[in-house]
Amino acid sequence: xxxxxxxxxxxxxxxxxxxxxxxxxxxxxxxxxxxxxxxxxxxxxxxxxxxxxxxxxxxxxxxxxxxxxxxxxxxxxxxxxxxxxxxxxxxxxxxxxxxxxxxxxxxxxxxxxxxxxxxxxxxxxxxxxxxxxxxxxxxxxxxxxxxxxxxxxxxxxxxxxxxxxxxxxxxxxx
Length: 174
What we know:
Layout: H1 2-7, H2 10-84, H3 87-106, E1 110-111, E2 124-131, E3 140-145, E4 148-150, E5 153-156, E6 158-164
Helix pairs in contact: 2-3
């Protein structure tokens, strides 16, 4: 083979060198296209995974919200049973409520602690005000409905009653 290269004309060597350079150039172009398509596919896959994750989380959030409504109904049933029902019925309802709370906790649902805290519009929704000279402005005085956090996001704000100092009252801040 080395002997054949020596016997080639200069034109033949130049032509072969050019073909080799062209082949290398095409190989680089194909490699570049391959890398681009690979990156594009990877971005597509990540975007699709993110979209699916969002859809799954929204579905789970919807189920959790329905369970929280059910929990509210159970609390009302327990309150009624405390006045009218037998101890065994009351114990049964409280047992079911505890199991429901355990399931919610297992799935990462966290109750928002509101009572006595400073009003936070990111966590609470004020539905009424109470005038009180003893409390600092915007202290949660009553929790009308529990609020919850899931997946580091408020899925249901607490419905609260908030203190307000009367106009012209004493200026003590808390």
